[in-house]
Amino acid sequence: MAPRRSKGAGAFPKAVETPAPARPDPDALYAALDLGTNSCRMLIAQPKGSGFHVVDSFSKSVQLGTGLERTGRLSRSSMSRTIQALRICQQKLKRNRVKRMRLVTTEACRRAKNARDFIRQVKRETGLLLEIIQPEEEARLAVISCAPLVSTKTEQLLVVDIGGGSTELVWIDLSSVPKRDRPAAIMRLHAGFHTTDSPFPSAKVVDWISVPLGVATLRDQFNDVEDDSARFALMSWFFEEHLADFAPYKDEQAREGFQIVGTSGTVTTVAASHLGLKRYDRTKVDGLRMTSDQIDKVIRGYLELGPLGRRRDPRIGEDRQALIMSGSAILQALLRCWPTDRLSVADRGLREGLLYAQMSADGVLEDGPF
Length: 370
Fold this sequence. Notes:
Layout lengths: L29 E6 L3 E10 L2 E11 L6 H4 L4 H20 L4 E6 L1 H5 L3 H12 L4 E2 L2 H11 L10 E7 L4 E7 L8 H6 L16 E8 L3 H7 L6 H14 L16 E6 L1 H11 L6 H4 L3 E2 L1 H21 L8 H17 L5 E4 L3 H13 L8
Parallel strand pairs: 1-4, 4-5, 6-9, 9-11
Antiparallel strand pairs: 1-2, 2-3, 6-7, 7-8, 10-11
Helix pairs in contact: 2-4, 5-13, 7-12, 8-12, 9-11, 9-12, 11-12
């Protein structure tokens, strides 16, 4: 005898509809685009507490500065690549209906003779208006992007932003700021390095410098040196020579109470190599602390690998293998001057600084710990 079918057997199941995530309110969105010597990067975000939540992003290597060191001009091919990337950014901005934005470009356009023509072409073909920012603002934005990584124990802080065409260094004295307020004091620098009208204890900018050497421009200076180790040594000493006018350069710095925050692809790649990551993971890298000895060990490993070994290393990759050595030369020069047991790795930079600055100016960030 066949078993009786249960009541309702064979009925169509009721569809369970998952509601689509609510689209963010366009009035609450901010965008920041950073067009550098090597890369075009953009973030679209909305304020969330004392920080922000990323809604959309874009990042692409466009190598805008290719050939700039030799000709003083942006090449047609590099401008074409960059405009293609900017079209994608424009589509994302339009799709998210973003109204508040800053779209900036840095060293390559500061130096190129035809930068204004390029900016006009970008406006004509994409509708985006790029703004060339000066080195001090670039340095300031790098500093505030790293505010959440500043330790409350830090009395002397050096923020280093190694870019494609330039490197910004900012030395900040936090000794007169109450410990718990130190990260917030860094954030308040969005108004300027030398503002004195704040009712709060202020972070004092001792000195800052923009060295016109980044991973691309420093590499191009020594392209004709064939020996890998010799090229690395020359790059490192050449960069150090450009620090002579930086006020804290000659002062011996005690490791206790001293922190370096490094923001760049170089620093994050070195951190990934130190951790032995087979695939890059921002959550493990951003905020990681390393000592001078640990960084030196990674850089020695890069030299032992040689160009072919670095190209095959998944933590470095074919695109970055040439740039990682010029970046490492800059990093080694800095640590030769100021050894530290506390170099904090920042997977953040100009875009985050632009977002924090816009949101802080509009008063939409909540007070409180980062």
